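Following up on my earlier message about zinc ion. Here are the inputs again, as you asked, copied directly from the submission form:
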Amino acid sequence: MNDSNIIKCRHCGTEYEVTPKVRAQHEAREYSFYCTSCKTSFYYNKMYEKQFHISDILSITTGRLLSTRHMDGIYDILDFLSQDELYTHQLPRAMKEFQPYLLEQFPQFVDIDKDLTQENCGVWLQKQTVKFGEMFVVTISFEDIKRLHSYNNPLDELITMVGNRNNTGATNE
Ligand SMILES: [Zn+2]
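Thanks, got it. Here's what our run produced:
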């Protein structure tokens, strides 16, 4: 049996031998697979993975612009994590959505920014790179993205944000 011909039930673990075509369609989440053993159907939990520089990851976990690629690094990692094409005004929200997730994946970065300031960030980043390494593989599954991220229409979201800002200070009748 070849692994690429197997679909494993996400609920009970029963394995089914299928044709490569069925397996490929399942992986593309084109349709769900019905498990005759536990009588539930399920979609494939697609995994995404990509390598990122430590400065991209630390930008999200610390909330400071540390990326050596500046804003490109922020767009890159948040677009990857959300599998979305984020607009500038959506970045702060996406950052909040994925910050706890990244810290869970990289517990070594929890609380390392205590001595980080605006002035020392270059030296600080250099120190972390020496200590932890330069490149990291970030992974996220389809289910995690669905759980953490909301796909909002960028224009609608902007209008809501502007609306909320205009309402600031207004009193309730
Ligand atoms: Zn099952």
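One observation from looking it over: The chain has two domains: 3-42, 47-164. Hope that helps, and feel free to reply on this thread.
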